[in-house]
Amino acid sequence: MTGRAAAKLRIVSLQRLTGVFLGSHAVAEGAVTRAQLQSGLYRRLFQNVYADPGLPLDHQLLARGAMLVMPDDAVLGGRSAAAWYDAPFATPADPVLVLVPPTSAWRGPRGIRVHRTEVASGEVRLIENAREAVRVTTPLRTAWEIGTLERVGNAVALLDAMVGAQHLTYESLERLAREGRGRWGSRRFSKVVPLVDGRSQSRPESLVRVACVRAGLPAPVPQFVVQSAGRWLGQVDLAWPEHRLIVEYEGPHHFEEHKIVQDDGRYARLIAAGWRVIRLSTADLWDLDGVVARIRQALALPLLAG
């Protein structure tokens, strides 16, 4: 058994099958049988990689599983690394992004996306806890893969969150865009950076804002504080103050009974003060063109008295 395999086996022993582990090593140690693995007693993440079913099934769990099968010279990057930088927007349905050297022959199991690229040693960060150590790219290198590999809206949402959490700054992103000119993906990255706004507090806010700007509409103000006659009326997701137009995204928690009452009262006060309110739900995000059309129409209407 190689030193790397032995180290992984020791991790299994310490976790006692309560974390993420390699099935073959757990069977070899006698901690579990093949029949138990095949029975569904543990959650299968990838081929030969399993997890305690009591752990939340999120993208970070899958990334932790990927660590057990990645080569020693590989590193988690892009949206998968962003989960450790307060941008956990990748879902369990999204492939884990693993960066490997250009010469690497490793392809990875199904569920892992391999991106071949050079990564300097200074662009790797080891995040350790009592159970494991996870290799991820640094915030700036993470930003590069996000900006070059993700769709524009999703890239902006991830970078918005990282800037908002102070893992990145606008200045560092602009500098990275300048220094990266001529590299593969640099044009794409340069289109993403000007759209980043760390004031956004959710992925839906970022997606709607980016869709509006790319459609030629004026950029809204994220997390705008609405006041009327010196009275605070609330902080809203997106606003066009000069048009007194507000867009609010309502996630599932907004439909809880007490929250509905609170929201209705808040919206009534905003409307009474002369503001228009467009309320969006998760279903609206599947038709951003339709959302933009609604906003465009509202921006063209005359202001309400307030």
UniProtKB/TrEMBL annotation:
It holds the Pfam family DUF559. Residues 236-299 form the DUF559 domain. InterPro entries: DUF559, Restrct_endonuc-II-like. This is DUF559 domain-containing protein.
